[in-house]
Amino acid sequence: MSLIKLPELDGAGWTCASCDEPLVPMARELEYLDSKFTVELPTCPKCGYVLIPEEIAIGKMFRAEQLMEDK
Predict the structure, then answer these.
(1) So where are the chain's domains?
(2) Quick check: pTM over 0.70?
């Protein structure tokens, strides 16, 4: 499984609300509609909290869901 990198999601300027650590890009495995993807997402290096930005949650994932439903 290849790593999907989204350069606009580097985590710059975001900190973890629990740990107050800056978020850093890390490979995370996501499962969506019975498919698994490895995506580089802003993640807290201390507790593992992952930031899924609104554009991914609403925009790109919604478009992916529509494509999968059309198949």
Answers:
(1) 3-70
(2) no
Q: What is the rounded distance in angstroms from the CA atom of residue 26 to the CA atom of residue 38?
A: 10
What whole-number distance in Å separates Cα of residue 65 and Cα of residue 71? 10
Instruction: Give the residue from 7, 2, 6, 67 showing the smallest Cα distance to 32.
Output: 67
DSSP the chain: -PEE--TT---TT-B-TTT-PBPEEEEEEEEETTEEEEEEEEE-TTT--B---HIIIIIIHHHHHHHHHH-
pLDDT band at 1 (very low <50, low <70, confident <90, very high): low
